[in-house]
Amino acid sequence: MLFPNSLTGSDIVMIAVAVLLILSVFLGVRIVPQSEKHVVERFGRLRAVLGPGINFIVPFLDRVPHKISILERQLPNAMQDAITADNVLVKVETSVFYRITEPEKTVYRIRDVDAAIATTVAGIVRSEIGVIELDEVQSNRARLIEKVREQVAVMVDDWGIEVTRAEILDVNLDEATRAAMLQQLNAERARRAQVTEAEGKKRAVELAAEAQLFQAQKEAEARRVSADAEAYATEVVAEAIAKNGLEAAQYQVALKQVDALAQVAKGEGKQTVILPAAALEAFTDAFQLLRKA
User: Fold this and answer.
1) Which of 55, 85, 141, 190 qualifies as a cystine partner to 50, CB 3.0-4.6 A?
2) Which of 91, 71, 72, 73 is nearest to 81 (CA)?
3) Residues 137, 82: contact at Cβ < 8 Å?
4) For the whole model, what pTM was predicted?
């Protein structure tokens, strides 16, 4: 072990050189985490931006005054007043997410990043809401959010910042406006109910008319079928007459008379049946004609 009184001049020089080398290595080697970027200055001027990993700088000449996180950040939710084109006062709640992509711009062009972005978003929201009416604010919120996001991205680009998300979380109204909108909504609901009821009645009438038309069509088809059957029967009788002469016609007439008498006999209760004088002759003629056939 060396003691101060036993050190020579050369020993002191060697120790000083070793300390200087260790200090140079310590100051010259910079390990940057994945979530950060380091800004390097030389004599007060920007020299370089160190990315993640191991980096080397010139000891005693370069220094790292700024260590910037590149993780995505969220601004606190903010409320700002805005007046629509139809002079309705609304309170808009916004939320913004961003991250720093170019630290050299952020460090040397803006001091308070969060406050600058919040002020920019508030101004853009007021400007965009001021040119549209309240109904459009409520119904086209997605389009409004897209416009706000685009304009905010353009405004903060010079600061080396990327706006990843800009959202309009809520649009609140005062009590008077809310009551008026509720009354309008109830009136619209009543109107829709009346329209629905009228359309239902109209549809019922249409269905009834269609049912009557369908019934008439079916009855017409039934009459047509019956007429076709009657025509066919007449045609058969006509062919029989043409083939067998007058006896076939007499046979058909006799069968009709017999059938009519059978129907009269089937009646219920006490009935008085009047037989024509030629009834028995009809039976006789029918049997005789049947034998000849």
Assistant:
1) 55
2) 91
3) no
4) 0.55
